[in-house]
């Protein structure tokens, strides 16, 4: 057996015989933007869609657990030996059709390079999603979103490899049940996204600007109700990247504030009455003025969306909390849990539990983690 793998020999031999496949022993600390996590059974890099399909089929048939990895920017993985194979997607071709505005990207393409390519080519619709780390293939998995846009706005189809049948097919985006930071691919591992197809605008203008802070940076008066403002895409991309860098939300190897998984908790979506109850608690703790300012947005069907960052901050967790140690909140954003260099998975879990517990006891709201956890849980182990 090769030094670089703890896989059964026959499976390893079959994988290594495939074209466009490289097996090595890269750890999850190297594969993820949190830079946390131990060593998988093997790391298998696939440079073509066919290679992805063949590797996944071989592993599934041999009943060897696997994890699809793109840019590793939404993963929190346990330390030590991790009993699964990391299948890293490195197929990265991108096709743009300037006349029709159709863009097809293979799953392993770096998402921000796809956005840059679209913007440089005059295709609009994804400029607000500039600077999100990770791969094109992961964008539908949690319906990535930022600055008032989400991939669901432009995603038309995805090419999927079904993990049950190992058949591959292009399916409509509507079959993914895309919602806020959710699709039926997230947490299910039911299929691998091999490629995505987007329908972009060909007039060089952005998606409608829905985010006040972005509009202000662009020098536009805050969009009024119903008014649709579109803007030259290159300007929107630059403005978004500037805003994101200021918040540590563009991954930068040299900046520990970006050794994160981005927003660590999703914004809670609760019944409108619950939202008002939370506002009441805020009023009791922090005063009526603060309660009036509590972010609370309609989220359809009697629901409202609260701001996780605001609740964390008002529960007393300031940027940089706890100010020392190996895992802290980002010094630029309260919603990012960061590795200051040598954090362990347990350090991150302890910080996540601390913050979730603090927000729950302050406001009665239980925050849900956004990243995918492997070999770890935010729930405290049951006392025996
Ligand atoms: C600094 C920073 C800022 C961020 N900002 C944002 C933001 O603004 N908005 C936002 O939505 N997210 C944000 N994120 C989170 C993250 O970048 C996105 O979720 C991104 O889409 C993850 O892509 P990835 O390739 O790194 O996925 P990975 O972390 O490699 O994988 C995440 C999950 O998706 C699965 N997966 C990955 N690729 C595929 C595939 N092709 N097929 C099937 N399953 C797959 C994996 O198995 C895993 O379960 C941020 C993260 C960081 C570090």
Automatic annotation (TrEMBL):
Pfam hit, one: FAD_binding_4
Subcellular location(s) per record: Cytoplasm
Pathway, per record: Cell wall biogenesis; peptidoglycan biosynthesis
Catalytic activity: UDP-N-acetyl-alpha-D-muramate + NADP(+) = UDP-N-acetyl-3-O-(1-carboxyvinyl)-alpha-D-glucosamine + NADPH + H(+)
InterPro entries cross-referenced by the UniProt entry: FAD-bd_PCMH (IPR016166), FAD-bd_PCMH-like_sf (IPR036318), FAD-bd_PCMH_sub1 (IPR016167), FAD-bd_PCMH_sub2 (IPR016169), MurB (IPR003170), MurB_C (IPR011601), MurB_C_sf (IPR036635), Oxid_FAD_bind_N (IPR006094)
GO molecular function terms noted in the UniProt entry: FAD binding; UDP-N-acetylmuramate dehydrogenase activity
Keyword Cell division attached: yes
Protein keywords: Cell cycle, Cell division, Cell shape, Cell wall biogenesis/degradation, Cytoplasm, FAD, Flavoprotein, NADP, Oxidoreductase, Peptidoglycan synthesis
EC number(s) from the headed UniProt entry: 1.3.1.98
Ranges where the FAD-binding PCMH-type domain occurs: 36-203
GO biological process: cell division; cell wall organization; peptidoglycan biosynthetic process; regulation of cell shape
A GO CC term attached to the entry: cytosol
Annotated family: Belongs to the MurB family.
Protein's recorded name: UDP-N-acetylenolpyruvoylglucosamine reductase
Highest classification ranks of the organism: Bacteria, Bacillati, Actinomycetota, Actinomycetes, Mycobacteriales
């Amino acid at each position: 057996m090769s030094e670089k793998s703890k896989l059964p020999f026959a499976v390893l031999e079959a994988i290594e015989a495939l074209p466009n496949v490289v097996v090595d022993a890269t750890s999850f600390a190297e594969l993820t933007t949190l830079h946390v996590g131990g060593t998988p059974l093997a790391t298998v890099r696939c440079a073509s869609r066919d290679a992805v399909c063949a590797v996944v089929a071989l592993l599934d048939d041999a009943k060897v657990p696997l994890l699809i990895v793109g840019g590793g920017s939404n993963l929190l993985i346990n330390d030590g030996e991790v009993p699964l194979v990391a299948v890293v997607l490195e197929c990265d071709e991108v096709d743009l059709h300037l006349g029709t505005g159709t863009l097809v990207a293979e799953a392993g393409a770096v998402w921000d390079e796809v956005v840059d390519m679209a913007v440089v080519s005059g295709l609009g619709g994804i400029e607000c999603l500039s600077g999100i780390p990770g791969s094109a293939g992961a964008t539908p998995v949690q319906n990535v979103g930022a600055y008032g846009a989400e991939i669901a706005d432009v995603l038309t189809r995805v090419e999927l490899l079904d993990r049950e049948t190992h058949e591959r097919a292009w399916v409509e985006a509507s079959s993914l049940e895309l919602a806020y930071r959710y699709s039926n691919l997230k947490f299910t591992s039911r299929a691998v996204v091999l490629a995505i197809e987007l329908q972009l605008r060909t007039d060089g203008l952005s998606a409608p600007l829905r985010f006040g802070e972005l509009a202000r940076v662009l020098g536009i008066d805050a969009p009024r109700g119903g008014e649709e403002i579109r803007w030259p895409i290159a300007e929107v991309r630059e403005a978004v990247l500037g805003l994101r860098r200021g918040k540590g939300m563009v991954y930068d190897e040299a900046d520990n504030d970006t050794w994160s998984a981005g927003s660590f908790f999703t914004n809670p979506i609760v019944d409108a009455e619950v939202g008002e109850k939370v506002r009441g608690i805020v009023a009791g703790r922090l005063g009526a003025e603060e309660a009036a300012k509590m972010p609370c947005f309609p989220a359809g069907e009697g629901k409202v969306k609260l701001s996780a960052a605001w609740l964390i901050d008002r529960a007393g967790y300031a940027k940089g909390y706890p100010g020392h140690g190996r895992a802290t909140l980002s010094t630029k954003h309260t919603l990012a849990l960061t590795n200051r260099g040598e954090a362990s998975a347990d350090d991150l879990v302890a910080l996540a539990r601390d913050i979730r517990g603090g927000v729950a006891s302050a406001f009665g709201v239980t925050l849900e983690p956004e990243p995918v956890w492997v070999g770890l849980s935010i729930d405290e182990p049951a006392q025996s």
